[in-house]
Specification:
This protein has 518 residues and is of the alpha/beta class. It is 35% helix and 20% strand. The strands form three sheets. The chain has an eight-stranded parallel β-sheet with strand order 7-6-5-4-3-2-1-8. Strands 10-9-11-13-14-12 form a six-stranded mixed β-sheet.
């Protein structure tokens, strides 16, 4: 098969292929194209008993899209441990056979590029790569490295680091935006995920995505790059929003916020941000381009101190789940949309089940015993909301002092989490789980005693992965009304969207996404 095109100036989506046989490599090339890849990176060092003359011809003859040929040695993080001369001969052969791109390590690039350019005036293009051990270097060091790589007359340069902290990505973005030739730069692992997703904003030439069923830490899937993030729509003016959390893998926020931003034609992207140190994070990402954040576990309380202003409701709760960078002065302003998101979901479920007569001015929670499990950020929001509706609060937490602190704030009672196993609620009480218990992958756990679930009129679970947790299944079987965390997630996201964009959220559109994808 002849040449099927090469990379353009716009960002392209690349699937790294690491099959152990040539036959599987050909299958994977076609699968990658079907899943939305523009180009594939073929790792020759992963192929068992690789035979250059035979196997390269098979790969290049059967390629359905442009290929980057990589033959990575052990000394540069690859798997090849053989003779260096034999490795370089294989790369020369790939160029002879018409590979679209040849990836060369910086150590060998200058000499080989000059040789191959002289031999093939109209041959493939050359990517010069450098794999860095340890933390990402300083901006100055990366700048010097980029200049050295550019001096090899590379068509594209590629730098890969192994990030210890998400703040290292800012150095990578700086390098991308200052390169004089097309560049690829990213960090591996979950903390480096934003280096892939935000690459187009800072001028990167290539975004990597994993194929379905072959997840790679730190890489988004090809499908998410095309459908959720739509990387081809990102440009230098795109505003960045994200979930600040640890971990972030469970979040479905990008599946909801990104399509909604596009629906209202707002130039923004919402990404997961694995954050270890809040102070470092907010110090480093101080640009107006980083316009707002959702805040998840375990940071909803701790993040309050980094907000320069806090909305009165969030201040009362002592927890923030939404931050915006105010455009006029760049200050971080903290809000809480969890409170109304959770309480209105519970109230509406009670009203829909006709447990209250009509829509009186009083909340259906007024006077009810309301059991909150977890005194963290989500628990605080739920408890303050329930108190505002006239409920009687009992707070359970593994940290009794934390439970007592929240109980004092809502004029309630505090108990240790262990006593929940023997706790007998009043008939018609409300139970709200605000802990991660039952979250994927530990989906077989529930926070309360199964035999007591029938005493509750309604059971709410803030966990939304899975949508129907074991707690909700058991409560449903016991005859209780159940409210999924998905409903709270949707409602708090509607509130966040208005804060992020200054526009009314398209509620029906957002609900349709949740029903279809969650």
């Amino acid at each position: 098969m002849g040449s099927v095109g090469v990379l353009t100036n716009s960002v392209m989506v690349c699937a790294p292929l690491m099959a152990e046989s040539v036959e599987q490599m050909v299958i994977d090339m076609h699968s990658a194209k079907a899943q939305g890849a523009d180009v594939v990176e073929v790792r020759l060092d992963c192929i068992n008993e690789f035979q250059p003359s035979q196997d390269l011809e098979t790969i290049i003859r059967n390629k359905p899209l442009p290929v980057i040929i990589v033959y990575r040695p052990k000394w540069e993080g690859g798997q090849y441990e053989g003779d260096e001369h034999r490795r370089l001969e294989a790369l020369r052969l790939a160029n002879d056979l018409g590979a679209d791109y040849i990836d060369l390590e910086l150590k060998v690039a200058s000499e080989l590029i000059e040789e191959l350019r002289n031999k093939h005036q109209n041959g493939g293009k050359f990517i010069v790569s450098s794999y860095l051990n340890g933390a990402t270097p300083s901006k100055e060091s990366l700048g010097h490295l980029a200049a050295t790589m550019q001096a090899t007359e590379a068509d594209i340069i590629k730098v890969v680091s192994d990030a210890d902290d998400i703040t290292e990505m800012e150095r990578i973005f700086h390098m991308l935006s200052h390169c004089e030739v097309p560049a690829v730069a990213y960090s591996v692992g979950e903390r480096g995920l934003i280096s892939q997703l935000l690459c187009p904003k800072f001028g990167g030439a290539l975004v990597y995505g994993s194929m379905e069923g072959n997840s790679i830490p730190g890489l988004p899937t090809l499908d998410s790059l095309r459908e959720a993030y739509k990387v081809d729509c990102i440009n230098s003016d795109t505003k960045v929003f994200g979930l600040v959390s640890k971990p972030v893998g469970h979040s479905k926020g990008p599946m909801l916020h990104n399509p909604t931003l596009r629906h209202v034609k707002f130039n923004g992207i919402y990404v997961p941000m694995f954050v270890d140190d809040l102070k470092k994070f907010f110090d480093v990402y101080a640009s107006p381009d980083f316009a707002g954040y959702s805040v998840g576990f375990p940071y909803k309380e701790a993040v309050v101190q980094f907000c320069e202003e806090v909305h009165p409701l969030a201040k009362c709760i002592g927890a923030v789940n939404t931050i915006i960078r105010r455009p006029c002065d760049g200050k971080l302003i903290g809000y809480n949309t969890d409170c109304e998101g959770s309480i209105t979901a519970i109230e509406d479920a009670l009203r829909d089940q006709k447990y209250v007569n009509g829509r009186s001015l009083n909340s259906p929670l007024a006077g009810k015993q309301f059991v909150v499990v977890g005194a963290g950020g989500a628990g605080r929001a739920i408890a303050v909301g329930a108190k505002s509706r006239g409920a009687r609060l009992i707070i359970f937490d593994i940290d009794l002092e934390r439970a007592k602190g929240l109980a004092r704030a809502v004029s309630g009672e505090a108990q240790h989490f262990e006593s929940l196993a023997h706790f007998q609620p009043e008939n018609g009480a409300i139970l709200a789980n605000a802990t991660p218990i039952g979250m994927h992958p530990s989906t077989d756990r529930i926070p309360a005693a199964e035999e007591t679930l029938g005493n509750y009129q309604l059971v709410f679970d803030a966990v939304y992965t899975p949508r129907k947790t074991r707690l909700l299944k058991d409560a449903d079987a016991a005859g209780a009304i159940t409210v999924s965390g998905v409903e709270m997630f949707l409602r708090q996201a509607i509130g966040q969207f208005k804060l992020f964009t200054g526009r009314e959220a398209p509620k029906d559109f957002m609900r349709e996404i949740v029903l279809a994808k969650f």
